[in-house]
Amino acid sequence: MKAKLIIYFIFWIFFIYSCTENVNVSVPTQDTTSANFALILCEGLWGYNNSSVSKLNLFTYDVINDFTFFANPNFKIGDTGNDIALKGDTFFVVVTTSKVLEIFNSKTGKLIDYITFQEGSAPRHIAIINDTLVAVTDLFKDCVYLVNIVSKNIVNTILVGPAPEFVEFYDGKLFVVNSGYGDYRAKEPKAGTLSVVDIKLGKEIQNVFIAPNPIEVLIDRLRKRLFVSYNHLPSLKDSIG
After folding, report:
1. Calpha distance 68→61 (Å, rounded)
2. pLDDT category, 172, cuts 50, 70, 90?
3. What is the pTM of this model?
4. DSSP code string of 96-147
């Protein structure tokens, strides 16, 4: 019995010691409300209205969970947050099921404003164009909106392909991936394509087939390269991406 107690005691000493941080690191004291943080959007569960944003200190790695709650105690981000974008001291959250684009102060988490989309919409992803204009894709209405965040108006609605997902802005153009929503709309025209939209003309000027169910687009502005990732169709055996 004594042997068991000694082993148990030694185990707990080892456990406590191993969980204690013993690395002496000098942490910089830069202001994390300027540029030394990351914002993480947690989409939550569909139908539970529990999307949230966490703020990560990139020097101390401290995390403020549900960052916006403390500044807006009676406000919830909403149901199924799908995208987040940062510009200066402002960040934007696109909430699909709640049909809203929300605008927050990145230093305080305070809600600045919000824009509600019409019934039947499903705002999905966002690209920042300039100080007053953003682009938001709509998964259900097969379009991309140009939204004036000052007047809170949709200034243009541009049709693309079925179930548009990610959107990027570069050199006066929007690049939108049309997923087709997996198997659901895979056989529709323009499913699996990339739409190129001219902002000034306000229309799609090019459409290129990529692969089944493309989800995300990313632009390397330094090397002028565009990357698209795709998930393939769930129904296909040995699906790749």
Report:
1. 18
2. very high
3. 0.84
4. TTTTEEEEEETTT--EEEEEEPPTT--EEEEEE-SSSEEEEEETTTTEEEEE
